[in-house]
Amino acid sequence: MMQVSVSSYSFSKLNKEPVELIELAKELGFAAIEYIDVDYDTACALREESERVELPIICYTVGADFLQAESVEAEVQRLCEQVDIAEALGVSVMRHDGTRGFASPQNNHMGFAQALTPLARGCRQVTEYAATKGITTTIENHGFFCQDSARVASLIGAVGHSNFGALVDIGNFCCADEDPAKATGNLAAMAKHVHAKDFHIKPGSGQHPGEGWFESRGGNYLRGAIVGHGNVPVGQCLGNLKRAGYDGYVSIEFEGMEDCLMALRIGRESLQKIINSL
C-alpha cells in the first residue's frame, strides 16, 4: 500500500535546520521524509538522525538545467556529485530537473523537439552512474518547459533506461494547464515516486486574485492548497497510479499560505484517508 511521506520543502517557512525536520515529521505522523539540496556533510548527519529516529529518508531532489548549464557534460558531472550525496543520505530515488528551456533570444524558435536529444543524453549518463549506486533517477513534471505529461513521457522514452522514470507531481500539471487526472494516467506506468500537491485554481479570464497567487503557463491563477482542499482530483490521480501498479511513497509538497504545521497535519490525514479508500 502507498505510504504518506513529506518533503522538507513543506517546512521551508519554519527556517529550521534540516536535521530538526526528521523528528518533526515523525511527530506529525509521516512514514518517511525526503530532502532538497543538501551538502555531503549534512547528508551524513541526516542519515544518522534518520536511523536514530527510525524515519527513513526516501528521496533526494536537486535542480538541474542541461540546456542553460555551461555544457551537458558539466551538468552531468555536477549531478553525479549529487548522486554521491543521495548515496550518503541512503535514499533509493533521486529527482533532478531537465531544463527551463532555451535561454538565448537567438534560440527562441527552438522547442522541445530540439531539446530532447541533449536532455536525453544528459539524463541517461546520470542514471547510468546512479545505477551503480543502487539509486533510481527521475524527472519531474516541473519548470513549465518540461511539464506536460507528453513531454515527460517522450524524454523517458528517449533516455530508454530502466533506471530512469518519472516523479509524478499530481498538482504540477496545473502549471501547464493540463488535467491532473488525465496527465497522471499518461505517466502512471512510468512512476518511480509521487508528490501530492494541491492548488486552488481560478480562470485567467478574471482579475488577478492578488497576493499568494501565480499564473500558469496559459495564464490561469494558482495558489498552493492544503492537500484535499484544492481543485486537484487527488483521489482520482492516486487511483490511476494504483491501477498502474504504483505502491510506493506519496510525499506531500505543501506551498500554500496557511501555517505549514497545521496544513501538513490536515493534509496528511486527508491523504491517508484517500489512500485507505483506494
Task: Indicate the percent of residues in helices.
Answer: 25-40%
CATH architecture: Alpha-Beta Barrel
- Report strand %: 15-25%
First-to-last CA distance: 10 Å
What is the fold named in CATH at topology level? Answer: TIM Barrel
The tally of domains stands at 1
Looking at this structure, what is the CATH superfamily?
Divalent-metal-dependent TIM barrel enzymes
- The secondary-structure class comes to alpha/beta
Spatial arrangement of strands, main beta sheet: 1-2-3-4-5-6-7-11
Element-level helix/strand string = EHEHEHEHEHEHEEEEHEH
- Write down the CATH class: Alpha Beta
Radius of gyration: 18 Å
Largest sheet: 8 strands, parallel, barrel
State the low-pLDDT regions, or none: none
- What is the tally of beta strands? 11
Shape: globular
Helical stretch tally: 8
